[in-house]
Structure formats: structure tokens, C-alpha cells
């Protein structure tokens, strides 16, 4: 079973909520599953629950209700008025109304664990980092020195920090977490596979937000190589990258297109290349530009002149992070990074025909191609529930938003720009998944207002709103 990081679990929780599976439901499922495991392994009837004020503690509060036949005492670290989440507070209130033995702990000396047969560790979940100190540190020491059977909820509290609970058993939820050893029992809490398949706001959260103290360039410098025969496509990509949070976007484009692209917005930096199409003689300029940018996105509006393909064959190998789209998607080019084809372009680069197939039938061929080529593939085009499939060759993700109005020209160029902006801040798979979600969400916002009258620039203007969590 694939392990999951604390970040990924938080992202999954957000997506579950987005799809209607509420945190209170998951907490109830987790607590009930936890109680079943305790009943199966407990060697006595007296149980002490040491609970933090977050959702990890909330899971244990639910478990207390399900531990019929046991004598349960709940030690809450801190004041009940300081419980951090609505779900955990609600479960505390239920126990209070039902007359459970509840104790608020202000000092580690208040923890009298010697009289119990089992201690349930529910201090911290997967989100704790750094140094554990104060009341929580004292509680961990008390648990470790009690000499009792210890079961930890989801992870041993403090795992990966300076101080951690030494658990006999860990009951972890949904998937195993990184770094755990010993007896680990993975229990189902009702998260369906689809919640890990379809993209949601949790994937956007994984990209991260611009820090308050950030400086120009910290959120990404994007180089767009496009234009020549066509001028609109690279401008759309560049503007989308800016709206998606990139700090600096430069468009490198042939001389014939440079003034037109510069006229789209004063926010764009345009570097003029030679002639009316990209060619190898432009490499001296491009090498310098590539070195000064975090991500290079290329292909939009370039055309397929033989000199252009020769130039691309030289450009792609010297790039670090790349997003490759449109005319740069050619079978004889050394593709890398993220590729964003529609089914026709995918057939061109892979020889695999996906026309007419359902999205489930597309999964295995896409994964196989991505794995063999070492790419992340973001396949465009709606099939049933799915408007995009994204894979790194191992993990497959899908995006379900978007609408028929987005078949208008230019929305794929917008997607490439959002993908590039996110790729400056996170991994290729995360960037592509979040970009598909944001692009579709922005398109849905436009569709609600303009129906089939939408154009690609409308989608760009909605990107900041679509990025709100």
C-alpha cells in the first residue's frame, strides 16, 4: 500500500470536504474504527485517553463513545474552550452531556496514568513539526514512563520531532504514514478511491501561497517561447501565468510577432528574436533567458517550420523545468517535464490512438507512456466525468470540472500558463493537477456568466478567484 505524507493527507481531507464528505463524518468513522481496534487488543478494561485540542484528539473523543464495556477517562491537554476545531469541540460536548469522566490538564503532573491498563495517545496528528515543548512534551514523557500498553491514533505523537510517544500499536487511517515502525494497523475510515482520483482544492493548497515576506522572483520566473506564425497563443499563456501567481513572465518570440504580443499587456516582458519564426540562430539569446528563468513553457503559436523544430531540439535539453505544449509536441523532439497534449497531439508523440475511448480505458496507456518517457502527462479533452487526466507514470489523477464552452480556442494555452506558474513552486505532478483544477474552475465561473459566449481571456480574468481556497 502506498504511503501518504502529512501534506497529502491534509490535501485529501480538503478534497473530501469539497466533494461533500464532511470532516465530522470522517471523524466519526475514524473514532469508530479506532474503538474496534482497541477492543480487539486491549488487555484490561481501564483506558486513559490523552487528547490534544485538534482533530487527532477529536478522533479519540469519538472512540470514547464507542468503547462500551470499558472504563474510560479522557485527559484533555488544556482547556476545553481552546479546542481548535468545530468537530472536536462537538464531540467533547457530547461526552460532557453524557456524563463521561473528562479532565482538563493544565500541568503534566495532573496525568495519573499508573491506574490504567491502556493509554490512548491522541496528542498530535500528522501536522506537527519542529520542537515539542511545554504541556505536550510533558504528556509524552508521562505516557512513555507509565509502563502501560500504548496505542497511538494515526501516528505516534511527536513522530519526527525531538520527542515522540513510544507506541506498542499505531492505528492509522486510510493509508500508512511515512516514518512509522512496529505494529501499524491501517483502518478504513470511508474515504473512497475517487477522492484520491479527482482533483480538488486540496491540490491547489499543496502548491502553496506566496509568503508575506517574499520578494520579486520568489514565486517564479516564467519564460514563454512561442509565437511567430501566431501571436495570440503565447500572450494568453503569459497572461495566465501572471494571473496564477508568477512574479515575472518573459515572452521570447520572433520579430514578426513581438510588437503584437507586447501590445496585449504592459505587464509582459517581450524579448524579440530574429525573423518570422523560431530558428537555431536565436540560441545565443535563448540560452541566457533560459538560465534566468525557473520554468520554460514552449510551443504555443510557434508553427512547424523545420528550423523551428531544429531550434526546439536544442532548447529542450538545456532547460530545467519545462511545460511543453502545441507545436513543440513532436515525436522527434526530446520531450521532458510536463507535456500538455490533447488526444490528437498525444497520438502524434506516442503513436497511441485514444480517440473514442472512455477515460478509464485511457489510464493504462497514459501511465505506461509517462513511465517510459519520464514525463508528467496532462491530457486535455473531456470524456464523461473527466476533462483532464494527469499522470507521472505511477499515480493517476483526473479533473472533473470544466464545461463545453471551454472548447473555444485558447483555453489550452491558458492551462499551459497556469501549469508553468505552479511548476515554479511545486513538483510536476502537483503543478499539473492543480492547474487542471484551477483552469476548469475558472472556466466554470465564466460559463455561469457568459455560457457559450466565453473566450480565453475571460478565463484568465477568473484565475485569481478560482485560486481562492
What's the overall average pLDDT, rounded?
95
**CATH class identity of the largest domain:** Alpha Beta
How many domains make up the 3D coordinates?
A: 2
- Spatial order of the strands forming the largest sheet: 10-9-8-11-12-13-14-15-16
Number of strands: 16
Structural class category: alpha/beta
Strand content: 15-25%
Global geometry:
elongated
Helix content: 40-55%
Fourth CATH level, the homologous superfamily of the largest domain: Ribokinase
Number of helices: 16
End-to-end separation? 30 Å
Q: From the coordinates shown, what is the CATH architecture of the largest domain?
A: 3-Layer(aba) Sandwich
* Poorly predicted runs of 5 or more residues: none
How would you explain this protein's 3D organization?
The protein has 469 residues and is an alpha/beta fold. The chain has 2 domains: 6-192, Rossmann fold; 201-466, Ribokinase (UDP-N-acetylmuramoyl-L-alanine:D-glutamate ligase). 41% of the residues lie in helices and 17% in strands. The protein contains 16 helices and 16 strands. It has helices at 6-18, 23-41, 55-66, 86-97, 134-145, 193-197, 201-207, 232-243, 255-262, 283-291, 306-318, 343-350, 359-373, 411-423, 428-450, 456-466; strands spanning 46-51, 71-77, 101-105, 118-122, 149-153, 169-173, 183-187, 221-225, 248-253, 269-272, 295-298, 321-324, 338-339, 376-383, 386-391, 396-399. The longest helix is centred in the C-terminal third of the chain and has 23 residues, at 428-450.
